[in-house]
Design goal:
The chain is of the alpha/beta class. The protein has one domain: Methylesterase CheB, C-terminal domain (Rossmann fold, 3-Layer(aba) Sandwich), CATH 3.40.50. The protein has a 3-stranded parallel β-sheet, with helices on both faces. A two-stranded parallel sheet has the order 1-2. Helix 3 links the parallel strand 5 and strand 6.
């Protein structure tokens, strides 16, 4: 099922989409999905993807909370998370970690999703930077990355 999702993402986005493997070094412009029954995490620099079968979070494995919490530790204020349509509470706790670290959290507008509970829970938790229609989320990500790049350049100039 995960491979079918990867194929659909490739078709819809035009970006390469892969099933993650242990210690894989992610490439810019690529999308990675956690394999079934494995949490995916971001390992500290040199950045790589990790997989584990630690206990389920929110009755889920893989869990967005596990991924978001690890990403927040590695990327801090430069972390960007997206919560799309989905069932349950997964993602809200991890989104809170990202927001507390000054990162950005975007959610798909719950009124426009087929299953709104994941974005709704994040909104209710007040950890969201913006709630947007699906078609505007890519633009928001690009804008956030541009801001982050400007921050990094400014810091390097000050050094």
């Amino acid at each position: 099922m995960t491979e079918l999702l990867a194929q659909q993402i490739r078709l819809e986005t035009g970006f390469p989409c892969h099933i993650a493997s242990q210690n894989l070094q992610p490439e810019e412009g690529h999308i990675y999905l956690a394999p079934g029954d494995h949490h995916m995490v971001i390992n500290p620099p040199p950045v790589s993807l990790g997989l584990n079968q630690k206990p389920k979070a929110n009755f889920m494995r893989p869990s967005a909370d596990v991924l978001f919490e690890s990403a927040s530790k590695v990327f801090g204020e430069f972390c960007v998370a997206v919560i799309l349509s989905g069932m349950g509470r997964d993602g809200a706790r991890g989104a809170g970690t990202i927001k507390a670290g000054a990162g950005a959290v975007f959610v798909e507008s719950p009124g426009k999703t087929s299953v709104p509970s994941m974005p709704r829970t994040a909104l209710d938790s007040r950890v969201v930077s913006a709630s947007l229609p699906l078609g505007l989320i890519g633009e928001a990500i690009n804008h956030q990355v541009t801001l982050s790049n400007k921050k990094l350049l400014h810091r390097k100039r000050e050094e």
